[in-house]
Amino acid sequence: MQRKNDHITEALKQSFTPNDFDKVRFEPVLLPKVNIDEVDLSTEYCGQTFPGPIFINAMTGGTDKAHAINTDLAKLAAKFDLPMASGSGSVVLKETSAIESFSTIRAHHPQGFVFANIGADKTPEDAVKVVELLNANALQIHVNAPQEAVMPEGERDFTHWAANIQAMKAAVNVPVVVKGVGFGMSRNDLLELKSLGIETIDVAGSGGTNFITIENARRSYPLDGFAGYGFSTVESLLEAQSVKGVEILASGGIRNAYDVVKALSFGANAVGLSRFFLKLVIDHDLDQAEPILDTFLSDIRKIMALLGVKNVKELQGLTPILDPSLEAFASR
Ligand SMILES: Cc1cc2nc3c(=O)[nH]c(=O)nc-3n(C[C@H](O)[C@H](O)[C@H](O)COP(=O)(O)O)c2cc1C
């Protein structure tokens, strides 16, 4: 349980600047022929149409602090009709007293789209339980081997994870999203998930919350020099370019509306933010958080209009300009 609070404390200490989104630009449009108020932010994934392209990505559950955070996040999600993920439900499988820190999400976002969340080390029965607990609309399965390896008390055996993912997918009757936790995905990873029958993948790259740094802070002897492990979110989205037939979501290091626009331009159907929302509800009352989020969404619309696009489909048709290091990565 203490681990959950440690994650929140350590995540809040991190800074996301700079990251690879700073290496992406667009051709400017001098005369954009778009009315900002007519930009359509709606998008589709997991078999549904959503009014906007962002969602609150998985974070927490299991402690009093997590309960308060999930309650605020759910209220915000309800107000803005945002999909929201719970943190990993594994704690509930062990401690029934933790249930309310999760069920508060459904209580405060009764009509909303809610993702349950579970690790790839768990069983199909566990997956069904966490979906039922939240009456969830979809299940996120997180795949976090590097975090487990660095975590003092983490998993050691990854041999069954691919089979577990397949079994969980077969067991639940809601759409499944496989996500990382900030180490990104290669083309081979994406193809492997596709071959396991996964239709929606959140590439969850580096550049944002860094779980090696977080787990290192919890170790007596840190694993130095390892924090840069993995692919950034932009690199992972580049890897996804040639993988057809799966729905791509993006997360990891999204700091502002411009990052959202950039991630969508690489073909992501939606963009998940964790630390952004955590800070929003920790640093602000809901009354203060609401206009900040409202401005964030309206800025996405403004930037899209400036780029001359009227909807997410048109944005996905743009070709972002990469700096030389990303260009080299893209053609590796
Ligand atoms: C405090 C905290 C707890 C998290 N716990 C989970 C979790 O339980 N399950 C999960 O899939 N991801 C978890 N994540 C990872 C996020 O979903 C996301 O992949 C990662 O934070 C990168 O996004 P960001 O850069 O916007 O924070 C957590 C992130 C934070 C900040």
Descriptive account of the structure:
This protein has helices spanning 2-13, 64-80, 90-94, 99-108, 124-134, 145-150, 161-171, 187-195, 211-217, 233-240, 257-265, 275-283, 286-306, 312-316, 324-330, and strands at residues 24-25, 43-45, 48-50, 54-56, 84-85, 114-119, 138-142, 176-179, 200-202, 247-251, 270-273, 321-322. It is an alpha/beta fold and 332 residues long. The protein has one domain: TIM Barrel, CATH 3.20.20.70. It has an 8-stranded parallel beta sheet with strand order 4-11-10-9-8-7-6-5. Helix 2 crosses helix 13 (286-306). The chain is globular. 45% of the residues are buried. It binds flavin mononucleotide. Flavin mononucleotide is lined by residues 7-8, 11, 57-60, 87-88, 117, 140, 142, 179, 181-182, 204, 208-209, 251-254, 273-276, 278.
Short description:
The chain has helices spanning 2-13, 64-80, 90-94, 99-108, 124-134, 145-150, 161-171, 187-195, 211-217, 233-240, 257-265, 275-283, 286-306, 312-316, 324-330, and strands at 24-25, 43-45, 48-50, 54-56, 84-85, 114-119, 138-142, 176-179, 200-202, 247-251, 270-273, 321-322. The chain has 332 residues and is of the alpha/beta class. Bound molecules: flavin mononucleotide.
Features:
332 residues, alpha/beta, TIM Barrel, 8-stranded parallel beta sheet, 15 helices, 44% helix, globular, binds flavin mononucleotide
